Inverse folding.
């Protein structure tokens, strides 16, 4: 079991090193890098599934000469669940990346090396059982993803995005480090096993650890307002990496948060209120910001903020249930959040791969320059449609299943007499409904403008579908969307142990409410299956009726206007404008308007730019202040070796004199 | 043997001051070589006396610091065609004064420094070693030519070696040799660097390297 996992690590490490060493031979390097990533991910997947199936808990220690460190890795229900997400998505994105990067072979050797290292780092984060090992894996993951984001470093905007990411991830890591130092001093060792004995160690201590974990891990997960790196880094990275970053890497933040909760629980009610608050703000802000975007991958990145918000809603609900000892609520909240993590990995991975496919075919991510792609790229259009429907939480697909669990939990919470639970649960229901509606609007915009209508530029009109290596993973993920949507009830038994690990109580407590939810999901799945069947029958009937008749395509009636162009189509901005006007106070949308003038207007233009409100209003002032503070110290940096040696000598002497 | 140890330490101090007062690079190298030989002799007169181990150590130190390093550095300055340290940051007179000041500080520190029980009875060892370390740093800071800075580095290392030998009588042989190897590699690399820099830039002034910074 663990052997399988270790073998996966070894394959990833060797494959990554091989891809970097062989970069003089592009085909061999790409083949080795992608092949080892797929093989390693499949091995890891096997070990994770085996652990989930047997509902086991394994641990393995190795000798390690590191102060405070111990090379202990372990796999339990929670780790295995996240390993499933990480390895599953990694295998598919590696296949996709093999096709996606084919054009720029010759410079992908290092990219494949970092890809393998990233998968390894994420998996180690999920299985580390020692604080130091965890931090090392965390850094490996952050740095390798930084290099992947900076893949096209010759472009200035990519460099800027990569730096933003690096700064953000290290600010988060600083809080994580502080948290582990505090936990380690309290527990007397950095082993997770000892930290788990801290339960009920004092309210202030637990609250402090919780706050540090929310900030530190929330930066990685992308909670508002710490999400600022997300809309920068995801569009800048190659698309298969965006899929992996958004689908799997940001989830490690949630995993780590859950693992820490298992050390310092049971929670107080305000922890749940805080996470529900974060979830509402992140979800609404993410989806409204996404509506305002013109860049397809940036739009998807904001939807990651939204979906992390939905997962946070589930976590908050779970915490409320745990703090009140209401195990039904805890089970539904935590299980909903976990299932949403899996679902988001599937549909957001799919959507990023589709966006990559569009970028690959047309060379642009600008929504307003695309259009009419469904005719030229049917597979991409179909899979994007499935992913879009799933992310909006529509019934036959997987997004619905996890949101259903959270809704169910929230409605059970609303029924309770306790206002501390009922009020936040009611707010949760309202926010989740609003988020779902706005997400549907946003994807109606994205799908409609990109895939329907006529191509708005030459590139869009010439687009062609990518190679099989790209289409295959997209189809597989689309199939997974349907499969999880229909078979969510069968996943319930695997979620109970993971929830049990978070709360540190027997999994049997959670099995019963989850089984109940599973029965409801089964009914819904049957209805959905009937719906799919009916649709298929209708399609069959249509094909039958049309058989033998001529089907022609003709231009839309243009009221006799003689010179229509593709640019006269309804644009994404115009589609989103009424909704954006509603939320204008919370966004920073700059508009540049040059209205037509005179009786025979010549030139007129209109452009909107959506800046990130958190970046402009919160982080820009802070960083400007810190920058001005530090620029006063610039004189210290003389640039002469002599002066630096002098600093060292004077410091040494001063310390000696001071100490004696 | 305290007399011998104190004698060697006194000689080290005199060489330090001489190094601060000279501008000719060839003489600098000679001074540092002489200092290296004296440091090499220290293990022989330390508390463990003349044994096979100390003899071996002394031979290795003297061979490296007395013969190999001066050769490397002489070759480097011949290759780079420099003779003198001109216009240092700190003039010769002021350097000497600073050196005397550092000597005073060293004695003060030596008197107050808490030492392990096995500390040597010889009076000059601790202040002498600290003074050598500080003067090595002073040379690195105040001189411009790369060769002089390597000399400063070697003086610093001599000081550390003297301190180690004098204060901890039984440092394992392996560690001593390891340190020696490190120093050897460092000087080797630095000599090559000096040569390369002079080839590229027609001078070996370390202060003008700051023009390379971005």
């Amino acid at each position: 079991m663990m052997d399988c996992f270790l073998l996966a690590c070894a394959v990833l490490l060797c494959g990554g090193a091989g891809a970097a060493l062989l970069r003089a031979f592009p085909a061999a390097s790409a083949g080795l890098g992608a092949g080892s990533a797929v093989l390693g991910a499949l091995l890891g997947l096997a070990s994770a599934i085996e652990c989930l199936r047997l509902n086991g808990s394994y641990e393995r220690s190795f000798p390690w000469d590191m102060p405070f460190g111990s090379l202990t890795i372990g796999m339990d229900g929670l780790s295995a669940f996240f390993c499933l997400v990480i390895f599953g998505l990694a295998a598919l994105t590696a296949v996709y990346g093999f096709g996606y990067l084919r054009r720029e072979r010759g410079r992908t050797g290092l990219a494949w090396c970092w890809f393998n290292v990233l998968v390894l780092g994420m998996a180690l984060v999920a299985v580390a059982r020692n604080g130091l090992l965890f931090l090392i894996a965390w850094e490996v993951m952050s740095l390798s993803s930084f290099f992947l984001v900076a893949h096209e470093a010759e472009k200035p905007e990519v460099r800027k995005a990569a730096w933003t990411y690096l700064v953000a991830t290290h600010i988060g890591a600083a809080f994580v480090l502080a948290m582990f130092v505090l936990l380690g001093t309290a527990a007397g060792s950095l082993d997770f096993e000892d930290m788990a004995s801290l339960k009920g160690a004092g309210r202030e201590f637990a609250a402090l650890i919780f706050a540090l974990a929310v900030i530190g891990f929330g930066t990685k997960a992308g909670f508002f307002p710490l999400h600022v790196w997300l809309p920068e880094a995801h569009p800048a990275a190659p698309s298969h990496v965006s899929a992996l970053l958004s689908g799997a890497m940001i989830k490690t933040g949630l995993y780590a948060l859950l693992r820490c909760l298992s050390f310092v629980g049971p929670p107080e009610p305000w922890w749940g209120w805080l996470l529900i608050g974060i979830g509402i703000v992140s979800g609404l802000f993410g989806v409204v910001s996404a509506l305002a975007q013109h860049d397809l991958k940036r739009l998807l990145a904001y939807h990651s903020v939204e979906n992390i918000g939905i997962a946070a809603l589930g976590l908050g609900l779970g915490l409320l249930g745990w703090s009140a000892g209401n195990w039904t609520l805890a089970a539904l909240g935590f299980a909903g959040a976990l299932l949403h993590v899996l679902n988001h990995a599937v549909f957001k991975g799919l959507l990023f791969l589709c966006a990559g496919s569009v970028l690959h075919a047309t060379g642009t991510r600008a929504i307003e320059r695309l259009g009419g792609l469904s005719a030229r790229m049917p597979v991409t259009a179909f899979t994007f449609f499935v992913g879009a429907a799933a992310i909006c939480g529509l019934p036959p697909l997987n997004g619905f299943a996890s949101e259903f669990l959270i809704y169910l939990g929230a409605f059970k919470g609303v029924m309770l007499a306790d206002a501390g639970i009922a009020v936040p649960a009611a707010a949760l229901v309202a926010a989740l409904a609003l988020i779902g509606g706005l997400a549907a609007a946003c994807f109606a915009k994205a799908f409609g403008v990109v895939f329907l209508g006529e191509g708005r530029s030459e590139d869009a009109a010439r687009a062609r579908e990518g190679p099989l290596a790209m289409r295959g993973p997209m189809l597989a993920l689309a199939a997974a969307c349907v499969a999880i949507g229909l078979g969510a009830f069968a996943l319930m038994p695997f979620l109970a142990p993971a929830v049990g690990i978070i709360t540190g109580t027997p999994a049997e407590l959670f099995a019963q409410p989850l089984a109940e939810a599973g029965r409801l999901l089964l009914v819904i799945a049957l209805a959905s299956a009937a719906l799919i069947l009916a649709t298929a029958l209708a399609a069959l009937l249509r094909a039958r009726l049309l058989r033998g008749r001529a089907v022609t395509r003709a231009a839309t009636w243009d009221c006799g206007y003689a010179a229509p162009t593709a640019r006269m189509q309804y644009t994404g901005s115009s589609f989103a404008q009424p909704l954006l006007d509603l939320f204008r106070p919370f966004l920073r949308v700059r508009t540049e308007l040059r209205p037509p003038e005179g009786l025979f207007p010549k030139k007129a233009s209109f452009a909107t730019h959506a800046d990130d409100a958190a970046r402009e209003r919160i982080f820009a002032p802070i960083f400007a202040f810190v920058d001005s503070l530090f620029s006063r110290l610039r004189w210290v940096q003389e640039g002469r070796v002599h002066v630096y040696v002098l600093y060292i000598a004077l410091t040494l002497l001063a310390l000696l004199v001071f100490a004696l | 043997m305290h007399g011998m140890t104190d004698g060697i330490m006194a000689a080290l101090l005199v060489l330090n001051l001489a190094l601060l007062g000279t501008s000719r690079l060839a003489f600098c190298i000679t001074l540092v070589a002489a200092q290296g030989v004296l440091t090499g002799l220290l293990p022989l007169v330390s508390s463990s006396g003349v044994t096979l181990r100390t003899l071996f150590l002394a031979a290795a130190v003297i061979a490296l610091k007395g013969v190999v390093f001066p050769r490397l550095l002489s070759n480097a300055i011949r290759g780079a065609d420099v003779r003198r340290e001109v216009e240092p940051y700190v003039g010769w007179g002021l350097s000497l004064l600073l050196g005397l000041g550092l000597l005073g500080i060293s004695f003060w520190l030596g008197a107050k420094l808490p030492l392990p029980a096995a500390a040597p009875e010889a009076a000059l060892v601790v202040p002498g070693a600290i003074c050598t370390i500080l003067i090595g740093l002073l040379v690195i800071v105040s001189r411009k030519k790369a060769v002089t800075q390597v000399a400063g580095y070697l003086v610093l290392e001599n000081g550390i070696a003297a301190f180690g030998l004098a204060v901890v009588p039984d440092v394992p042989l392996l560690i001593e040799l390891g340190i020696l190897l490190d120093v050897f590699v460092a000087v080797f690399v630095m000599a090559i660097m000096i040569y390369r820099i002079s080839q590229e830039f027609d001078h070996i002034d370390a202060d003008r390297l700051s023009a390379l910074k971005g």
